[in-house]
Amino acid sequence: MNQIFGYYVDKPLSQDELTLKFSPSSIPIKERWRNNGLSADFMADYLTTFVPKNENDAITIERQAEIKSAASYIANELLENSMKYCDYSIKYPITIQLQLDTDQIRFFVTNSVNKSELSKFEAFIKDVMESDPDELYFRQLEKSAEDENSTSSGLGLLSMVNDYSAMLGWKFHSIEEKKEAIPSLMVAKGIAVTTMVQLTF
After folding, report:
1. Distance in angstroms (rounded) separating the CA atoms of residues 191 and 174
2. What distance in Å separates the CA atoms of residue 113 and residue 88, rounded to the nearest whole number?
3. Which fold has domain 2-200?
4. Share of the chain above pLDDT 70, in %
5. What is the DSSP track for 81-149?
6. Were 197 and a residue from 5, 30, 107, 184 both cysteine, which residue would form a disulfide, CB within 3.0 to 4.6 Å?
């Protein structure tokens, strides 16, 4: 399986990158949830070291603060989604990568996906690609208000588009492992998705 939806770019940005990897088995998700904000803030702090700031220029100070805030929000949302929807039975690591260039940043977060959730996820992606972002955002808000137990509103991703003009893309691929009896033979173990978010600043 290898499918791409939306705006997804495999070619890396050239300047610099940062990758964090989380083992799904080492810390329970409820405990790790508190660490998502710390990881997101770390990535945002790392990013701002590449954004010039002049202490005597309010415009550059404000620009750096805006980029830091956007990066922290996006990284946190991506981490929360990846941990919420990860198929922990596969024991596949969750990774988040930040790539940056002179006027662009890209986040890539990869996690395993439960096969039973695939069709629902693909339907949401199709909705995101084909709908007006503002209309879809308010529709999702109404759905969330009607169903208080709903945990899959997609509002975080829609906020990225509406608030930061982000470009979104998804890549689904098979997770393969070597067969113990025949090490040269790879067998499908599950499905992973990489969500890409690109910002231009």
Report:
1. 5
2. 9
3. Heat Shock Protein 90 (3.30.565)
4. 87
5. HHHHS--TTS-PPEEEEEEE-SSEEEEEEEEEE-GGGHHHHHHHHHHHHHS-HHHHHHHHHHHHHH-TT
6. 107
3-state class of 12 per DSSP?
A: coil
- Taking only the tens place, the pLDDT of each residue in 120-129 is 999 999 999 9
Q: Are 122 and 5 in contact (CB under 8 A)?
A: yes
Residue 67 near residue 98 (C-beta atoms within 8 A): no
- Domain boundaries in the chain? 2-200
Kindly give, in sequence order, each residue whose CB lies less than 8 Å from that of residue 151, ignoring residues fewer than 6 positions away: 84
Q: How far is the C-alpha of 76 from the C-alpha of 84, rounded, in Å?
A: 12
Evaluate if residue 171 carries a pLDDT over 90.
yes
Q: What angle do CA 38, 43, 49 make, to 5 degrees?
A: 125
Adjacency order of strands within the sheet including 167-178: 2-6, 167-178, 186-200, 104-113, 94-100, 16-22
Q: Name 153's bridge partners.
A: none
- Please classify residue 108 by burial: count the beta carbons closer than 10 Å to its beta carbon, then call 0-12 exposed, 13-18 middle and 19+ buried: buried
Q: At what angle do helices 133-146 and 118-130 cross, to 10 degrees?
A: 140
Lookup: tokens for 189 = 């173990």
Which residue type does 35 have?
A: N
Q: If DSSP codes are grouped into helix, strand and coil, which group holds residue 20?
A: strand
